[in-house]
Amino acid sequence: MGRLDIKIGKLKLKNPVMVASGTFGYAKEFEKLMDLKSLGAIVTKTITLKPRSGNPMPRICETSSGMLNAIGLQNDGVDDFIKEKLPYLSKICVPIIVSISGDKIEEFIKLAKKLDKEKAVDGIELNISCPNIESKKGLIAQDKDATYDVVKAVREVTGKTLITKLSPNVTNVLKIARAACKAGTDAVSLVNTFLGMAIDIETGKSKLGNITGGLSGPCIKPIAVRMVWEVAKNIDKPVIGMGGIMSAEDAIEFMLAGAKAVQVGTANFIEPQICEKIIKGIKRWEKTK
Ligand SMILES: Cc1cc2nc3c(=O)[nH]c(=O)nc-3n(C[C@H](O)[C@H](O)[C@H](O)COP(=O)(O)O)c2cc1C
Questions:
Q1: pLDDT at 52 over 50
Q2: Residue 52 to residue 31: CA distance in whole angstroms
Q3: Nearest C-alpha to atom 22 of ligand 1 is from which residue?
Q4: Distance CA 23, CA 150 (A)
Q5: Is position 61 annotated as part of the catalytic site?
Q6: What is the mean pLDDT of residues 44-58?
Q7: Is the pLDDT of residue 193 over 80?
Q8: Which residues of 60-90 are buried (b: 16+ CB within 10 A; e: fewer)?
Q9: Residue nearest to atom 3 of ligand 1 (CA)
Q10: Ligand 1: distance of its center to the CA of 265 in Å?
């Protein structure tokens, strides 16, 4: 007992704590603030095929026990990522999971093919659940057939560990998780942010340039724990849980709900060393079992 190492697909992690996509940049931003080597894995900010300028400002605002964000997947595109960010990430000696997103299946395929060639990429997380990009058809992760098609198409072009990130903005999350598993994902991660909105009562306008945004932080934790529990007991692939983890106790709660690993998001903005504390806390808890 007391061992923290786990396996997700082909990936071996020395502990189950990862940083969540979009809350840790491409890791360099945190190099002076914490020990990057302590992490179980790093999930990069989502990248797309072509650069994206993101949504209009303001893009974040604080809410009771959480925050809203509507970044809109701002990034410099996959070629820039491979040239400018990956060399640094590869030197950290921690598994690197690259989060990707696209508007069409073809974009996911092209991204996965490019990343599959890169030795420094250990895994791919499919962000099919970002609530901040406009789409008439809704999110891929809101439709079981669309989820199946994207996961299957990516599975066919890469042997890297594949994680599918699910949306909480659905009625039946298990149905979507099952579609991802059937299509060959190695694991599912949940949850992405909840669609939300906040209005400035002085101006009568939304506090976000995009009007709506994604809600994260402690306020979403009980719903996220329930969703992880619902999925974990019904699928035979590992579940990576997240949503409002601010302490080791919160992470343990997700693990007791059935998560094999956890991701920490919003908490990184408040306390950059939070993951190190969470890892130590889980280690102490494991020893008492
Ligand atoms: C500012 C911000 C940016 C985010 N960007 C991304 C992103 O690029 N890709 C993604 O899959 N999730 C993104 N997320 C969602 C987080 O990875 C995570 O799923 C969510 O915030 C719930 O976890 P938390 O409550 O610990 O933050 C973002 C969240 C925040 C707060």
A1: yes
A2: 25
A3: 243
A4: 24
A5: no
A6: 97
A7: yes
A8: beebeebbbbbbbbbbbebeebbeebbeebe
A9: 22
A10: 6
Q: How far does residue 151's CA lie from ligand 1's centre (Å)?
A: 20
Say which residues have a Cβ less than 8 Å from residue 225's Cβ, sequence separation at least 6. 241, 243, 253, 254, 257
Looking at ligand 1, which residue's alpha carbon is closest to its atom 4? 22
Whether residue 51 is preceded by a cis peptide bond, meaning omega within 30 degrees of 0, is no
Mean pLDDT of 144-165: 97
Angle of helix 144-157 relative to helix 105-116, nearest 10 degrees, comes to: 30
pLDDT in tens, 225-264: 999 999 999 999 999 999 999 999 999 999 999 999 999 9
Q: Which of 130, 181, 219, 275 is catalytic?
A: 130
Give the tens place of pLDDT for each residue, 77-103.
999 999 999 999 999 999 999 999 999
Residues lining ligand 1, judged by CB closer than 6 Å? 20-23, 45-46, 60, 67, 69, 71, 73, 99, 127, 130, 165, 192-193, 216-217, 220, 242-245, 264-267
Is residue 280 left, alpha or beta, with left meaning phi > 0 and alpha meaning psi from -120 to 50?
Answer: alpha
- Residue 192 confidence (pLDDT) above 80: yes
Q: Are 81 and 49 in contact (CB under 8 A)?
A: no
Using a 10 angstrom Cβ sphere, with 0-12 exposed, 13-18 middle and 19 or more buried, the burial of residue 195 is middle
The atom of ligand 1 lying closest to the CA of 263 is 26
The tokens for 66 are: 């959480």
Characterize the bridge pairing of strands 11-13 and 17-19: unpaired
What is the SS3 assignment for 241? Answer: strand
pLDDT at 217 over 70: yes
> Which of 78, 97, 192 best tests ligand 1's pocket when mutated (most atoms within 8 Å of CB)?
192
